[in-house]
Write a structure and sequence with these properties.
- The chain is an alpha+beta fold.
- It folds into two domains: 178 residues, no CATH class; 97 residues, Alpha-Beta Plaits, CATH 3.30.70.3040.
- Helices cover 66% and strands 7% of the residues.
- It has a four-stranded antiparallel β-sheet.
- The longest helix has 42 residues.
Amino acid sequence: MKTPRNKAKRPTMSHQGAGGCLRYFFGRAVSNLRQNMVVNAVTVGTITLALLIVALFLLLVVNLENAADSWSERVQVTVYFDRDLTPKEQTDLKNRIQALPGTANVTWVGHDEALKRFKGRLKGQETLLEGVSSDVLPTSFEIALKKQSRSSEAVEAYVSRLKTVPGIGEVQYGEEWVRRFNTFLTFMRLVGALVGGFLLVAVVFIVSNTIRLTIYARRDELEVMALVGATRLFIKMPFLIEGVLQGLAGGLLSLLLLLAIYQLFLHNAGNFLSFNPASSGLAFLPAEFMLGLVLAGALLGFLGSLTSLRRFMADT
């Protein structure tokens, strides 16, 4: 009697205890992956594409946040003076302002510097300032704020404390611009949360149904195992591990594809954009986001397998 060729060898429970069970379950999961290459490739591909969409959205959010941080640095408070301050008065006042909570940096702008900046804003029309003395422009302190003090409420509270400092003159901080900027940030974060939540639900649904096809392709095997007395945990565990492995593979592949798209965009975007993304500070995902994406893939694979197994067990 001839032995059938190319028959896949099933792992056997060669060791007792938890370690032996885990080795058996992992061996069974790997064996299932090898035997159903096409179906598993479809599952991994689905997870990869689903996570790639999420990764692209995350990349957009990260760069929008970076741009928002850069723009928020323009939030500053300016104190104008209608008279010249002595060097001692400048130093004393600067130290008092620097001691206020929320102050990041204080810069003195004298008459000459103010005139130079004004001319810079009138580039090409400098002749309008011919004969104008620098003394006509007020001196000022420009105060840069710390990141946590750049919201509308925080700026207003800071200005209120600043006005209590003796010697402070007229204070301006662009109330309307600060309010609009913070409203824009809040709106973008809300949209990001809504779109991110929708994508997450869609990904879980797609992955769950794709893995369900994998399980239904081996429903006869599961029914036989249930008939011979295998426990639910014994039946489920290899499929759960299989889902985790598929999710890990999908997460890693989505990262590689995202990196390829990112590099391709950096090298070719200059041909159809008016700016160079490489020099504009466009950043890739931080390390914690990349790790989170891979772990999210593993979690998706696990949840997809668990959901599909529950449906299958309920049907059987």
